[in-house]
Amino acid sequence: MEERDLIVCEECGSTEIQTQAWVDANTHQYIGETGIDRDDNWCNECEAHNYFCTKTEFVERMEAWWGDTDFPTMEKVTGFRQDDFTAEDGYQEFVDACNEWWKTKSYDEKRAIFKEHNSEE
Ligand SMILES: [Zn+2]
Asked: Who is most buried in 4, 25, 43, 100, counting CB within 10 A?
């Protein structure tokens, strides 16, 4: 299975997820998913019934969030300080440094950060 075809929890991006399925009572052969209802889905990490999406979609959401993140949040996440950088071009050096930092993070590291900053609504 290719990486981009992975299904993840829509809330946290975890692959530790289960969905209910129809199985032949005699042979235990997999027949199909029960449906598209979120109640049929379970995320081990959220310990909740959540919708699933593809990993690609989740990565796109995380990257979109990071792209829209304001400076105070970027400071908090990266540990960099905006004041340590030149104000030229709207603190472009600060933004570049933060983006480089973000790029070095793994999928799991990114989704931990994403979850922390997107859980309170
Ligand atoms: Zn989850």
From this structure: 43
